[in-house]
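User: My collaborator sent over this chain with a note saying "see what the structure looks like." That's all I know about it. Can you take a look?
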Amino acid sequence: MAGYKETPRQKMIAMMYLVLTALLALNVSREMLHAFLVVNESISETNEKFAQKIEETYAEFQKQYSISQAKVEPFWLKAQEVQRLTDEMVAYIEDHKYKVIALTEGITVEKAKTTPLLEIDKKDNFDRPTNYFIGPEYNGEAYAIRKRIDEYRNNLLSLIEDEKTRENFNAKLGLKTDGDYYNADKEKEPWERHSFYHTILAADVTILNKIIAEIYNAESDIVNYLLSSITAEDFKFDRVGAKVIPVSNRIYVGDEYSAEILVAGYDTKKNPEVFILEGVDSLTPSLFNSARMIPGENGLVRLSLPASREGLQKYAGIIRLTTPWGEVSDYHFHQSYMVSRPTAAISPTKMNVFYRGVDNPVSISASGVANNLLHIDISTGEITRVDTGYIVKGLPDNATGATIKVWAEDNGQRRLMGQQFFRVKPLPDPIAMIRGAENGKITKSKLLTNAFLHCQLPEWVEFQYPFRVVSFTMILPAAGGYIQPEKSESNKFTDRMINVIQNLGKDSRIIFEDIKAQGPEGLRTIQSINITIL
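Assistant: Without extra context I'll predict from the sequence alone. Here is the result:
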């Protein structure tokens, strides 16, 4: 660690940052915004590829840990801490990015997450971003961001025990916020003001993505250092054992079961011979002639078994190799895996149909698959995830049906777990009511006490929606015909209605008709009701 040479990736990030800095020094016109978009797009693509590359490093780390837990565990635990700190830090920066976009554009944070920077109308605005990051009293979010960056950087450095190595890393690790920064007049200014004061939204988003790139860069440096700290001596064993590393223990009909079989901790130039037999718990001498041999390459044997039937499958075998002193040794192993058909459970929480104009709760699960690995599609409308499951909404007025498909993330690919069709209908008409009335009868005093109409969905409809009466007409049957109808433009009785009711006698009948109720799809006329005075 005496010296440090930048990698091509780090040079590329530095070059993009120089371009960004140069753009910020200009009086940026709307035409110049395209340059920011290009730089931001490049950094975003680099971040995605960089994150994937780091995952490969973690995968190699985990493989070494599975081979020798005792030797690798101290380094692996630190690598896991690096991963946790990085995930939290990236999520923190991403959260600020979407919040400042939402504030500037006047949209929700959820909308900001799905809107490309190119489609943001106010990407050249700097007043709202400056207020967000700097604040009127210099107490904006940039000061909290700087504090979190410093904490993240210090936490990474604390994982390096050797003091000299830690000093070297401190010198080369990015994310420094305590450097010398100057404004256009060559006056010193703090990191917060230098980065976010009077910078347009497009530049702010690019700067935040550049910070994320530096976070990934720091993560990569520390994790690769931890991985390289596991020397060749760490893998010398006084005991050799067989290891089976499956790609997945959850297999679906029509797939192949894949695994790597190797001798853990034994460094040899010779390829081992592997013998396996399916359907047994151990490969005994009496069963050896029934086993099949799988040749190895570069000390590694790759096993593939067809998943032709459902249920628990098992196999056993031995790894045979020659020791450095010329003896032939056998190392036994056994393994099992589950084969199942892709299945998914999709069920509405309230009813067996989806209703237009309202939120329809849906419960979705797939056998053996964590919820965060599920991808849900709907043929029309929208489906979003909430704490209690999923919500289907935004169904078009002309929709009569919708199909939900459930996909699972499986070894980097999407697999269809199941799908279900739902009918799409308008909500049923609500029923008009008067509080206190039973079987269409009510006392005059109760009627005058509850001088309004309300409505609710029938009892057989489990789904609830707050329909509201907005107008109705009251008429009274009479021997010579009907009195003049009285109309209310709300759900309440008019003064004239109340006066008429006060003069009614026992067994008088009142009809409420032309009842208009406000629903999710607009006004609708619902069924009339008759009330008899007791």
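A starting point for your reply to your collaborator: Residues 8-233 form one domain.
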